[in-house]
Design a protein that fits this description.
Helix content: 40-55%
CATH topology of the largest domain: TATA-Binding Protein
Number of strands: 5
Number of helices: 7
Radius of gyration: 22 Å
Largest sheet: 5 strands, antiparallel
Number of domains: 2
CATH architecture of the largest domain: 2-Layer Sandwich
Strand content: 15-25%
Low-confidence stretches: 1-24, 26-50
Distance between the termini: 55 Å
């Protein structure tokens, strides 16, 4: 029963099932009154049923034993060496500490956490020429963070660029290659310091 309640909540939020009193008329009689009919009309498909999505993790996470500030500086250098610059930095760790106090939730999630945002005019233009809706992937982001339980370990991660069954993934792959290569270079540089 608890599962169905949670499912109903999720579907209500996504608009797949509308909560209405039993006495109210059905605004769409063709769909029917049961939640099962509404669920069938919702066209939900989990990633477990999409083999191409299930085989590709949504986030790539790498880590290295290093100093956080040095990792950030070397990642910035990897970006600048490609003629790119940081467009903005999201201070996620600081925001969570600040808002956590206001919410009375002070359990530390990160020691430090920032998101580096940037763009490449060349790669982005090609990507959006292929599909203007790929604007959703801009700016590119690399997350750099440390966890309280793992002192000295710095994580670098990025989100995969997934767009259903696309015949030509070259422009999306170019972005992923850029992110992956920059992280790899940054990690290799840390190992040279040791």
């Amino acid at each position: 029963m608890k599962f169905f309640f949670l499912l109903f909540i999720v579907l209500s939020v996504t608009g797949c099932v509308a909560a209405r009193p039993a006495s109210s008329p059905n605004p769409n009689p063709a769909v029917g009154d049961s939640w099962r009919s509404n669920l069938k009309s919702c066209n939900i498909q989990s990633s477990a049923h999409r083999p191409e999505a299930a085989a590709r993790p949504p986030v790539i996470i790498k880590s290295v034993l290093a100093d956080y500030d040095q990792v950030w500086a070397d990642l910035t250098a990897a970006l600048n060496n490609r003629g790119l610059v940081i467009s903005s930095v999201s201070h996620v760790g600081e925001m969570l500490i600040r808002t956590g106090k206001a919410l009375g939730q002070t359990k530390p999630i990160f020691v430090r956490a920032r998101v580096m945002e940037f763009c490449s005019a060349v790669i982005s233009r090609k990507m959006m020429e292929d599909n203007p809706h790929y604007i959703a992937f801009c700016p590119y982001q690399i997350m750099v963070y440390t966890l309280p339980a793992e002192p000295g370990r710095v994580y670098l991660s990025y989100r995969r660029l997934y767009w259903g069954k696309v015949k030509n993934r070259q422009s999306l792959q170019r972005v992923e290659n850029l992110l992956s290569t920059m992280i790899k270079e940054t990690i290799e540089t840390q190992k040279e310091y040791q």
